[in-house]
Design a protein that fits this description.
Quinone Oxidoreductase, Chain A, domain 1, 2 domains, alpha/beta, five-stranded parallel sheet, 301 residues
Length: 301
């Protein structure tokens, strides 16, 4: 059995065309593939970010600090949600900051929505290393294009977009690299779109880029009612997999609505005894359950 511990970076240097990815997933039937014999696969996405962020994290760069050094500022100001030190939710405050100016290959987005991921509270508490304050947080961004920098041809003023930003989306405006944005589906509310990028892309890559899940396989998804887990259930079912999902009993109704075939209450059952010989485990619940999770993937024949 091959065991792979991975940060599950999604983009791997490819263009972040979110709309095309997910429109293709949900509006078209999945490709017809015969189930194939393969070794069990374990994918850990604990504390992950899509790869458009990971290179900077792994090299120890300061995400927010890099943004402030790089981008010029206009004379106009915006309101932003910032922190001046590491800590709990009490460290947040509203500040007035200059509106950043997009550089070459970048887009200034008028923010209409963002969302809070585990990576965000980990940054706030200082788990990702030092930062320069005041720091604007939040990676997910949804909004409309306010202006574009030199060389940007795929987006224009007023376009609805969503994606991931280095410089913090908890503000009225955020600078985003053009290749980290995608056109937002017209029927998607800006607030709904804001929860997609980090969580959904992590789930997508864990399942398909790393796990290579296909129809007929069995997948165990931890924390099925969470951000990554809730997307992973839907994506795995779209691919035709049989899905086990762990979660509290109160969340079983939600997980079944999302498509889970069998829900496991981790308070009263051992998931490794219920979900036996699965083809893949998507692990997103911390280190405590790693050993048990490694018992679930089936062994190679």
């Amino acid at each position: 059995m091959t065991i792979s511990f991975t940060y599950t970076p999604f983009m791997d240097g490819r263009r972040a065309d979110l709309h095309a990815r997910f429109a293709d997933l949900f509006l078209k039937p999945p490709p017809k593939e015969e189930p194939r014999a393969r070794r069990g696969f374990f994918s850990s996405c604990v504390g992950v970010l899509p790869s458009i962020l990971l290179p900077s994290v792994l090299r120890g760069k300061r995400l927010g600090r890099e943004g402030r050094r790089k981008y010029s500022m206009s004379n106009e100001t915006m309101k932003a949600w910032v922190i001046d030190k590491f800590g709990g939710p009490e460290v947040y405050r509203v500040a007035e900051l200059p509106i950043p100016t997009p550089g070459e290959g970048e887009v200034l987005v008028k923010v209409q929505g963002s969302s809070f991921n585990p990576a965000d509270w980990k940054v706030r508490e200082g788990h990702f290393g030092s930062r320069e304050f005041p720091l604007v947080q939040l990676f997910d961004v949804s909004g409309v294009v306010a202006s574009t920098g030199a060389g940007v041809t795929e987006f224009g003023e007023g376009d609805a977009v969503y994606g991931v930003t280095y410089t913090g989306a908890a503000a009225e405006y955020a600078v985003v690299k053009a290749d980290h944005l995608g056109p937002r589906p017209t029927l998607m509310d800006p607030a709904d779109a804001a929860v997609v990028p980090v969580a959904a892309l992590t789930a997508y890559q864990a399942l398909f880029d790393h796990g290579q899940v296909t129809s007929g396989q069995k997948v165990l998804i931890h924390a099925g009612a969470g951000g990554v887990g809730s997307f992973a259930i839907q994506l795995a079912k779209w691919a035709g997999a049989f899905v086990y999902a762990t979660g509290s009993a109160r969340n079983h109704h939600l997980m079944r609505e999302l498509g889970a075939d069998e829900c496991i209450d981790y308070h009263s059952a051992k998931f490794e005894e219920v979900a036996k010989d699965v083809d893949m485990v998507l692990h997103s619940i911390g280190q405590d359950q790693v050993s048990a999770s490694l018992q679930a993937p089936r062994r190679a024949a």
